[in-house]
Design a protein that fits this description.
Two copies of one chain form a homodimer.
Chain A: E1 2-6, H1 35-44, E2 52-57, H2 61-69, E3 77-80, H3 86-100, E4 106-111, H4 119-134, E5 138-143, E6 154-161, E7 164-171, H5 176-185, E8 188-198, H6 199-209, H7 211-217, H8 230-233, H9 241-246, E9 252-256, H10 267-273, E10 282-284, E11 287-290, E12 296-299, E13 303-307, E14 312-317, E15 320-325, H11 332-338, H12 343-346, E16 350-353, E17 356-364, E18 367-374, E19 378-379, E20 383-384, E21 388-396, E22 398-403, E23 406-411, E24 415-418, E25 424-428, E26 434-442, E27 451-452, H13 454-457
Parallel strand pairs in A: 1-2, 1-4, 2-3, 5-9, 10-12, 11-13, 12-14
Antiparallel strand pairs in A: 4-8, 5-8, 6-7, 6-8, 7-9, 14-15, 16-17, 17-18, 18-26, 19-25, 20-27, 21-24, 21-26, 22-23, 22-25
Helix pairs in contact in A: 3-6, 6-7
């Protein structure tokens, strides 16, 4: 069996916790693992890591790889050169498996940013869907509606099949009355975007219903880095798998998802899955409340004090604070759109890297300061800058510094100058975290002023 | 004529904008000047600076002096060694004038943290109160109530006097029905805590009604720094001027305050005086709103985004975020009490000093980093530290550094080490601001690890 994890996502729904460059699936929502990692682990309990393919946008590629590598080095990750909705991503992932294994294998396709806690019940559902998939069905996992949600698409089932139902049709997000009707009729399910089928069946349906995608697959090859060629991808239409295949194919079956499920599509849904205190509040971080009810107050860094408010969501992050009415938290997307040009929708102030993370502190005319943390046994690449000098002050731990042809050991409290154009590397070969302050100084300060020397030195 | 400005204040009402160490009167609420400075300027238009005495707690002494010195170097400031409510502060201030001028002079006593915009109307009220004060009355300035406020004390007037009224009695904060009755009766005024009288009359009333305070005045002397001796002050009862004198004396008259007046006693009252946009919002700083009404959103530093909320107050400062219901904003005091042990009620992250300001950035095991800004032509004292070394990196401007017996010029991008126990001073003799990062390193890092050498060197 194979799996495809769709690890794209815009980061708008849980802003300011999620960002364009660090969307929801990369966040730890419930426990230590991210949603992506939890999705991977859920599949990994019955599918080998090398058969679980994740596909994501090039801009999230290194973060996705970084997170998955912590679980397994053999998990493949494909990079899309640009965002094209789900159908092209799924088609390319199927093509990858076609080229690398058996077309008759069953593949399960799942989003990376939903919360499912009962993994055993999920696996049971997979088991129960297998025979339908073997019989040539595309088996979608329907979620039994618990209330008349108007924000999801619904799937209408017809007569029973072995362990499931034949699907009559996919329907768009309904209005409230329609949603109520669906629920009372009993044969409607939420569309959670999880489905299983033979690789060959899905590829056949692509050929039949979406030849514009299918035709481009012929030229698709994967290099070592599994990056999809831009010229192939740009020719594909941007279309969802529902529009491309599911709503058209007559091979769709449905099994009822037996586990819990939450798409975490808004702060409200995150509130829903969290444990509440006696006042109905979910409180995280440095928070003080007085007469606050049924609210979600989240502090990442600074003190948040709230008095006399009910049914609100208030989220503090390093560089943005968001407050909204709890049951209108889907409107956070509107704020996100209004802020589209602002850095706070794109980046966190703290940026994670394979070797650790950095936080931008002050910036001004001709300078920028960062706090940099290098994890034990990690190092930054050997590099130089044409337009800026750097000055490092070690706060915690010990830095091993390569500077031109020399090596230096810089202890806490000590500092070192990295002149313009000097070839240098910041490394932490020790067992404790290294924290430094970096002061960048120059007429042009940008992440793109960097020349890497990995090949020349062969040390990194 | 003389004036006494009561410049104490706990900083709880407008938290987190105000702090225990930087209360409301020191803040700029409306324009460039602080409330204290605006109060001083209002009086200074008809009273000479050397006759306007400000009295404040020792912990605010340097900030009060710093702000007033920017207007006039000759304005005297008395420091109370501890907080004792208004009566002891007023008594000591009267004693200061008794020792330094004519007891028959009229003195006007005003709080430092109220907002009055129409200075001309205020001065008119002062003029109209003079003949009553000359006749031996203690003339309180009554504020005509505009609505049945339950948070203020009221003053009931009796028969008319020249330009005012005889006061029948002072009454405590009423409940809503009583407040409504007061307003319909028409002869009740809000007690704004502003009053005028002859110095001799007030001192006589202290002798009569508050001998415990009066007796201690005999021993009161003022040194050059105008600090009240602890042993004298601690013997005085902690009591308000209203309880001590106003409610007991039969010499109280009232003139109607002709100017606008707002005590800025809560975020709600601050909202009241601010100009609103079409949605009834007051918005300050980096704020984005969507469907927000009748709210006060204040951002000091980071982005604040609000959606779908009405009638709230949301305040962001560097290290604390406060949200509350607008018409219950007096409850901020409760949050403040809950947080009493936290640094965020006491200090701002950015601390102002006569020479500039500093902001604490990171701190950890054995280190603390600050951004320090030294204003042009300013310098820090010559000092040394027994338990920490320092490392300075210049970000902007140029530093003139005294280090033991040498002097150094440190330019932007350069750095200098200040070893343990080294005698040093950071100075900016130039015309532009100096900004540095300071990394403190040591086993014990505290503001109290400082030895100052001003006298030895005679240079500062």
């Amino acid at each position: 069996m194979k799996a495809i994890i769709l690890a794209g996502g815009s980061g708008s729904r849980l802003w300011p916790l999620s960002r364009e460059m660090y969307p929801k699936q990369l966040l730890s929502i419930d426990g230590d693992t991210s949603l992506l990692q939890a999705t991977f682990n859920r599949l990994n309990s019955f599918i080998d890591a090398e058969n679980i393919l994740s596909i994501t946008n090039i801009k999230h590629f290194s973060d996705v790889k970084l997170q998955l590598n912590k679980i397994s080095k053999s998990a493949p990750v494909i990079a899309e050169p640009l965002g094209k909705n789900t159908a092209p991503a799924i088609a390319c992932s199927l093509e990858y498996f076609k080229q690398n294994s058996n077309e008759d294998d069953i593949v399960i396709i799942v989003p990376s940013d939903h919360l499912i806690k009962d993994n055993a019940a999920f696996e049971k559902t997979v088991e129960s869907a297998k025979s339908l998939a073997d019989d040539g069905y595309i088996v979608t996992f329907g979620i039994k509606p618990s209330y008349p949600e108007t924000g999801y698409g619904y799937i209408k089932t017809a007569n029973s099949l072995q362990g499931g139902y034949k699907v009559e049709k996919f329907v768009e997000k309904p209005d409230l009355d329609t949603a109520k009707k669906y629920i009372s009729e009993g044969n409607y399910y939420w569309n959670g975007g999880i489905f299983m089928a033979k690789i060959s069946v899905l590829l056949e349906e692509f050929r039949k219903y979406c030849p514009k995608i299918s035709a481009n697959l012929e030229h698709l090859t994967f290099d070592n880095h599994l990056k999809i060629d831009y010229s192939i991808y740009e020719n594909m239409p941007s279309i969802s798998i529902d529009y491309a295949i599911m709503e058209k194919s007559d091979k769709i079956a449905l099994v009822k998802l037996q586990s819990d499920w939450n798409d975490l599509g808004s702060w409200q849904s995150l509130y829903d899955v969290k444990e509440k205190d006696e006042q109905g509040n979910v409180i995280t971080g440095k928070v003080v409340v007085d007469n606050v009810k049924n609210s979600f107050i989240y502090s990442q860094k600074e003190l948040v004090a709230v008095s006399g408010l009910s049914d609100i969501i208030l989220v503090e992050t390093e560089d943005a604070i968001m407050a909204c009415k709890r049951d209108e938290s889907q409107n956070v997307k509107k704020l996100f759109e209004k802020l589209k040009e602002s850095d706070t929708t794109k980046l966190h102030k703290t940026v994670f890297r394979p070797w650790g993370y950095y936080t931008c502190m002050n910036s001004g005319e001709g300078y920028l300061t960062k706090t940099i943390c290098v994890l034990p046994k990690q190092k930054l690449s050997i590099q130089s800058h044409n337009y800026r000098s750097e000055h490092w002050v070690v706060l915690e731990g010990t830095a091993f510094v390569i500077l031109d042809d020399k090596e230096y050991i810089v202890k806490a409290g000590d500092s070192i100058d990295i002149p313009l154009k000097a070839i240098h590397s910041l490394q932490n070969p020790y067992d404790t975290e290294l924290k430094i302050i970096e002061v960048q100084k120059g007429d042009y300060i940008s992440e793109d002023d960097i020349i890497r020397y990995n090949d020349i030195y062969g040390r990194v």
